[in-house]
Design a protein that fits this description.
alpha+beta, 2 domains, Trna Endonuclease, Chain: A, domain 1, six-stranded mixed beta sheet, 16 strands, 32% helix, Metal Transport, Frataxin, Chain A, 8 helices
Length: 302
Amino acid sequence: MNISEILNKFILQAKEGSLKTADYSKEYLDLKMKVSFGMGVLARVPWISFTAPEMSTSNGYYPVYLFYREHNILILAYGISETSEYGEGWSKEITESKQRIADVISNPARYGDSFVCKQYSPQIKDGKVFFLKDGNEVSSDSLERDLKDIIDFYKKSVDIEVKNEGSVVSTGLFYMEKQLEDFIISNWNETELGKKYDLIYEEGTLISQQYRTDIGIIDILAKDKNTKSYVVIELKKNQTSDDTVGQAMRYMGWVEEKLNDPNVKGIIVAGQFDQKLHYAMKRAKDVEIFIYEVDFKLRAHK
């Protein structure tokens, strides 16, 4: 279902008053998608949000459609959560150039501090919704493009934030991934890596972990059990996909030249496989991806 179809269904339902959302997709363009018409009673401002995995509509910033029913105005907004003050937010590029919803709609029921990206007027004819902007009908392609543009900007914004070690987005994930390297080393023989590769020891001392080079530190340097070629293993921690792939390739180049190994390969260990990794892997033929999974449970102490 494309965004034109989603919005058609969304506006019709907001007009009818149903609160059901089970039939809506849970994901759109690799972001979490959530639809809300209110709890118990129809909200004055139903919405559709698109959030990064580490954010939510109650705690974060994100692209969002807000339908102001009383005004019959649909706004594609640079949304800001109202219920919890998030540590980061939209860049100055947005906050200093875009109008707040409160500047466009007098006394908005909610979300007045969010910023306007696009504004539409929904019109219903023969059971179908048409969207007007400045009196002209907006095509389905334009609706798709408007949403893709704000989502692309959002993804870039989140990527930049992940680089900031102290940001709310990265803190929890970085803490876990900082422990991941130690866990992999300690449990090497039980991992998929340990089945194919050996850790490197020198005079009985492990030198694989945090292997020092004159261009930086390799997370883990191992050797193929069969070919004896080197394997550069980089953990995607507190980095964008682009950074991690570039780093792995750089260290592979160093190993090829300094350790005289033209058959060196690379491995990236990540928490999830995203679109950037997908495209990068099409060209990085000597790099593999391993996805780690965390099984976290709590139980009562008896």
